[in-house]
Amino acid sequence: MACAAARSPADQDRFICIYPAYLNNKKTIAEGRRIPISKAVENPTATEIQDVCSAVGLNVFLEKNKMYSREWNRDVQYRGRVRVQLKQEDGSLCLVQFPSR
Fold it and tell me: Signal peptide span per the entry (predicted)?
């Protein structure tokens, strides 16, 4: 436990994960969608999510070979995970307009 407390919020393994299924309006809650259908988009890709996050000024990186565990389709289109930094090394927010996931 002491090791986990010593890690900085700026470490890449502490960035939050966003899978395309979280934002896909074709998915149900049981299939992994995490936002309301009215705010979701049709079949987003990890690259598109990375582009949008970068455009608003967030520190992001793309992990192309990662898969969401609930995703049954193994096509390249559904692969990928975006890691996003929300907090800086001192624990303060990177961007105040994004205080949480």
Answer: none
Q: Where are the alpha helices (DSSP H) in 14-87?
A: 46-55
Task: Say whether domain 12-84 belongs to CATH 3.30.56.30.
Answer: yes
CB-based contact 28:71 (threshold 8 Å): no
Amino acid occupying residue 35: I
pLDDT, tens only, 29-61: 998 899 999 999 999 999 999 999 999 999 999
For 13-71, strand residue ranges (E) read: 16-18, 59-63
Distance separating alpha carbons of residues 69 and 51, to the nearest angstrom = 23
Q: Would you give the DSSP letter of residue 68?
A: -
Domain boundary assignment for the chain: 12-84
The predicted model scores a pTM of 0.82
**16: β partners:** 84
Neighbours of 50 (CB within 10 A): 21
